[in-house]
């Protein structure tokens, strides 16, 4: 893009910043390797379901900060060599996208603009929903990145054209992604059990060229089979619907389904994607605080976010 998009202004994060990061709510002053920000509100199918519990996830995730990371000098013992946030990685909490007068369309537009702004600045955007509906504007904002391979970790296919007349809700992110010229491939990982999809959606997804790895296939064949099938030499974006993980790992979600990815499969997948190409951003959705157990879902999601940021920021800094 030749013209820099306007810098977003966001709400101050509550009850604190994510893992006690520095805060920037006027993004024209944003200078960082990565920025995390909340997009709490997805478009509802029924008004009496708004707001849903997922809209509380940015608050709940930040509330678990002291359990996600003790201090910024901490290193990740899952890796032999890892940077710490106390040196070499600049990670900022960019606040929350506001919802003004219950105008969710504008909320979506501001989220889209925030992603676009971060990408044009060379900053890794980490968006926190909210339900999976917020994936739609996030993916639209990635047009500034050029061609991307989209990694969806999810229990559900998400190829509905519409539900209850709404085309921008949580059942349609991959259908909407397939309409974006900058999304050149879609890789769906952990798909299983029952959702809203019918034979029609599966047929449309496969005809488009979506690569679908079911939870059962992953447990039978291993996560390496998924990694080997990914393209190389392209930018990746990860959309993590936390119900893609097994409920034993991630109980704090709504559409629980046994047979999802386990923790080490998720981490091995992250490592494998990173070796294939740069990961330019992450979207985390469908955290439901009321269903969490002892904050384990918030801890897991938070540590995955930190692992991705450390890994990609270190790569980016070494290449400069």
Keywords:
Arginase, Chain A, eight-stranded parallel beta sheet, about 325 residues, single chain
* Name of the level-1 CATH class: Alpha Beta
Tally the beta strands.
8
The whole-angstrom Rg is: 18 Å
Beta-strand share of residues: 15-25%
Which architecture per CATH?
Answer: 3-Layer(aba) Sandwich
Tell me the name of the CATH homologous superfamily.
Ureohydrolase domain
- Helix and strand composition category: alpha/beta
How does this structure look, described?
There is one protein chain. With 320 residues, the chain is α/β, with parallel strands linked by helices. The chain has a single domain, classed as Ureohydrolase domain (Arginase, Chain A, 3-Layer(aba) Sandwich). 31% of the residues lie in helices and 16% in strands. Strands 2-1-3-8-7-4-5-6 form an eight-stranded parallel sheet, with helices on both faces. It is globular and about 50 Å long. The mean pLDDT is 93.
């Amino acid at each position: 893009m030749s013209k820099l998009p306007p810098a977003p202004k966001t709400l101050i994060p509550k009850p604190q910043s994510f893992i006690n990061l520095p805060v920037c709510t006027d993004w024209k002053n944003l200078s960082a390797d990565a920025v995390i920000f909340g997009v709490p509100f997805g478009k509802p199918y029924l008004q009496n379901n708004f707001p849903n519990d997922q809209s509380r996830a940015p608050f709940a995730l930040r509330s678990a900060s002291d359990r996600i990371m003790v201090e910024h000098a901490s290193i990740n013992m899952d890796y032999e060599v890892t940077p710490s946030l106390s040196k070499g990685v600049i990670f900022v909490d960019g606040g929350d996208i506001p919802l003004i007068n219950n105008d969710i369309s504008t909320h979506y537009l501001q989220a889209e603009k925030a992603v676009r702004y971060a990408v044009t600045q060379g900053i890794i955007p980490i968006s926190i929903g909210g339900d999976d509906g917020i994936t739609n504007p996030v993916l639209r904002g990635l047009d500034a990145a050029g061609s991307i391979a989209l990694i969806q970790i999810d229990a559900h296919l998400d190829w509905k054209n519409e539900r209850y007349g709404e085309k921008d809700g949580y059942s349609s992110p991959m259908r909407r992604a397939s309409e974006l010229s900058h999304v050149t491939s879609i890789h769906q990982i952990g798909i299983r059990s029952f959702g809203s999809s019918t034979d029609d959606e599966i047929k449309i997804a496969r005809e488009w060229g979506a690569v679908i790895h079911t939870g059962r296939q992953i447990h039978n064949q291993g996560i390496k089979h998924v990694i080997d099938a990914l393209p190389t030499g392209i930018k990746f974006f990860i959309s993590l619907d936390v119900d893609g993980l097994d409920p034993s790992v991630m109980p704090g979600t709504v559409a629980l389904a046994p047979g999802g990815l386990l923790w080490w499969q998720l981490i091995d997948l992250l490592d494998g994607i990173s070796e294939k190409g740069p990961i330019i951003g992450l979207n985390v959705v469908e955290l439901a605080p009321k269903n969490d157990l002892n904050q384990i879902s918030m801890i897991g999601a938070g540590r995955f976010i930190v692992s991705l940021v450390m890994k990609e920021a270190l790569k980016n800094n070494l290449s400069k």
